[in-house]
Amino acid sequence: MTNTDLPGVSAVVLAAGASTRMGEAKQLLSIGAKTLLETVLDNLWRSQVSEIIVVLGTSADEIRLQVQMENVRVVINERHAEGIGTSVSAGIAAVSSMSEGALVILADQPFVRSETFDLLIGKYRDRKPGILVPMFQGFRGNPVLIDRHLFPELLSLAGDVGCRAIFGNHPGEMLKVPVDDVGVLLDVDTKADLERFRQIHATGSLDPELLGIADLEGRGERPELVIAGNDQVAKALALFGNALNYTVTIVDPLAQLVDFPGATRVLHALDLTRFGSDAGTYVVVASRGRFDEEAVEQALNSEARYVALIANKKRAAEIVERLANDKRERLKAPAGLAIGAESPAEIALSVMAEIVSVRHGAPKEGRTGGPRRP
Q1: How, if at all, do strands 51-56 and 139-140 pair?
Q2: Under CATH, domain 8-202 is a member of which superfamily?
Q3: Which pLDDT score is estimated for 215?
Q4: Dihedral angle sign, alpha carbons of residues 126, 130, 133, 137
Q5: Is residue 62 within 8 Å of residue 19, measured between CB atoms?
Q6: What is the pLDDT of residues 236-280, one digit of tens each?
Q7: Is residue 369 scored above 60 in pLDDT?
């Protein structure tokens, strides 16, 4: 595991969460013969990390009894109920003084390969960025690698926000590293995720549909609605777009066409610049923070007639603040007409109404800041 001839990079594994959506400690759920947490640790043991720190909280005693954690430093986060930020802080506080950086890893990402950890560490040693993030087919993944000089900012994190909270403070210090490992995008949140991952583990290969890139040629003359995201708002928006005779394209690394009855195709690579405007292209970013920045940047560099971000006002303001002045006016953020929308379907309706308004050149008096984001 340890390469003592090179500067140390620690691994901080965040395993303190309550797994509320799963209904039980997902760290202990099995994939094959091992638990999720054991699988992550096995991959780390085979990598070049100099030490492994596991942050526990909920079910800590049970996890310590059931998971083999030799050569692992265990940290108990007594404040885990306050959110992931406290776990990041607790883990970083335990990093060895000999380490120059830390990989911050989610305990429910069993498919990140040891070779990927080593690739990230190698790129860090070569370039010494403040923040290093893996990118799979244009989508930002985990783990992230943070240089020691940014540790003070991580130590001050609180609430339900992780390392991404500091990204906006250091745009010039971020290095995005392309990786050939879809595991950086895969984490277990629901029982459906778990069953799918068990099938992947049993077959030893990922679903080819997951990795396919849709053919965008011959889209015809209908207006194009491009939705970057895979949540309930995105699904409702696809249905509205289909009903209004738009060609609907979903852009998300994990989306399946069968889950979007209103969609024409699914694109698993983030490349929004390939969409033209012959018949009008309307782009809505609804990624719930997973790849907001990249999708917005690409959409604004395309010829799309409309670019919008579905987010709450605080998150929208953060994104807008990072844009060049000539790009800010193009982005509708938060997206949608102000109709008091709250549910996913209502939010989708407000966004589709705004798209229709833009398409037909209607006045803008009705726009007063967009709907609330659930």
Answers
A1: unpaired
A2: Spore Coat Polysaccharide Biosynthesis Protein SpsA; Chain A (3.90.550.10)
A3: 38
A4: negative
A5: no
A6: 999 999 999 898 999 998 888 888 988 988 888 888 877 755 558
A7: no
| pTM exceeding the 0.85 threshold for the entire prediction | no
- Residue 318 clears pLDDT 90, i.e. is over it: no
Reduced to 3 states (helix: H, G, I; strand: E, B; else coil), residue 250 is strand
Q: Give me the helices (H) in the chain, please.
A: 36-45, 60-66, 84-93, 114-127, 151-155, 191-203, 208-211, 232-243, 292-300, 313-321, 325-328, 344-359
Enumerate helices (H) and strands (E) in the chain, giving the number of each.
12, 16
pLDDT range class, residue 365, cuts 50, 70, 90: very low
Mean pLDDT of 185-193: 77
Measured between alpha carbons, how far is residue 25 from residues 62, 63, 189, 259, 269 in Å? 9, 9, 11, 27, 32
* N-terminal to C-terminal alpha carbon distance within the chain: 43
Greatest CA separation for the chain: 66
Q: What is the mean pLDDT of residues 85-103?
A: 95
User: Which of 191, 207, 257 lies closest to 227, judged by CA?
Assistant: 257
Q: What is the DSSP string of 280-329?
A: -EEEEE--TTSSHHHHHHHHHTTT-SEEEE---HHHHHHHHHTS-HHHHT
CATH number for 220-359 (one of 2.120.10.30, 3.40.50.300, 1.10.760.10, 3.40.50.720): it is 3.40.50.720
CA nearest to 308, candidates 255, 365, 356: 356
Domain ranges of the chain: 8-202, 220-359
Tell me which amino acid residue 275 is: F
Q: What is the pLDDT of residue 77?
A: 92
pLDDT digits (tens, 9 = 90+) for 287-304: 988 888 899 999 998 888
Cβ(225)–Cβ(241) below 8 Å: yes
Inform me whether the pLDDT recorded for 98 exceeds 50: yes
Closest CA relative to residue 26, chosen from 144, 201, 191, 162:
191
Q: 281-285 and 224-228: which strand pairing?
A: parallel
Two tokens, residue 160: 């339900």
Degrees to nearest 5, angle at CA 329 with 326 and 333: 130
